[in-house]
Amino acid sequence: MRIKIKNLEPEAYKTMLGFEHYMQSSTLDKKLLELVKIRASQINGCGYCLDIHTKDSLSLGEDPRRVFTLSAWRETELFTDAEQAALALVEEVTLIANGGVSDEVFNKAAIHFEEHQLAQLIMAIIAINSWNRFAITSKTIALKQPK
User: Fold this and answer.
1) Domain ranges for the chain
2) Staple partner for 46: which of 41, 111, 129, 140, CB 3.0–4.6 Å?
3) What is the full per-residue pLDDT of the chain (147 aa) written as tens digits?
4) DSSP states of 116-132 as a string?
């Protein structure tokens, strides 16, 4: 680890944790929230967050096949239309420098999520992208393999 941001800037870290706690109280399905976190973490290459959120997803009873194939979600029939819309939004928000969020992707998400939930989904995507950047920049690493 390069620096311990949570020790150096505890108020900022507490604010991030507060944001995370707020997201846990959202009306979005908890399994969907974990899929969002996993997909953004895959794109960003955050091993630490992938370790946490794949375990969390499985502990919620997520089908392991869905976790294993998440990076190829377009090529499977394992995800609902609403989940596909959310995952497309995750990808465009996470890769926002590649042209922003298209009207097509936003409108598909808006079909499946009421405005309040769509706002929560966007905030969840922003939150995990922040955590990914936090972990990657500070070189927070995934836990060692259990023996």
Assistant:
1) 29-138
2) 41
3) 688 888 999 999 999 999 999 998 999 999 999 999 999 999 999 999 999 999 999 999 999 999 999 999 999 999 999 999 999 999 999 999 999 999 999 999 999 999 999 999 999 999 999 999 999 998 887 656 655
4) HHHHHHHHHHHHHHHHH
Per CATH, the homologous superfamily of domain 29-138 is AhpD-like (1.20.1290.10)
Question: Which residue type, as a one-letter code, is found at position 16?
Answer: M
Distance separating alpha carbons of residues 139 and 32, to the nearest angstrom: 27
**CA torsion angle for 144, 68, 28, 90 (degrees, to 10)?**
90
Q: Which of these, 52, 137, 41, lies nearest to 90 by C-alpha position?
A: 41
